[in-house]
Predict the 3D structure of the following.
Amino acid sequence: MKMLLTAVVLLPILAACTTPPRSAWVKDGATESDRTTALSRCQYEMRLNKVPTKDRSDLLQLCMQGKGYRYQRVN
């Protein structure tokens, strides 16, 4: 019984430790809506210009950085 109680207490703690860090595009003074709009615009422009899928990640990063965003760890 004592072993079961210990496992029940420690399991959520260990699960929290294994959760990967969350990252997001961040810009000082920008709201969540601003970020979503900028991200959507970059994605739209890439599709409009028929950018190959393999190149989209790099171009998305350049587009968002051009708008003043940085991809950072957030928690």
Q: What stands out?
A: Helices lie at 2-17, 32-48, 53-66. The longest strand covers residues 22-26.
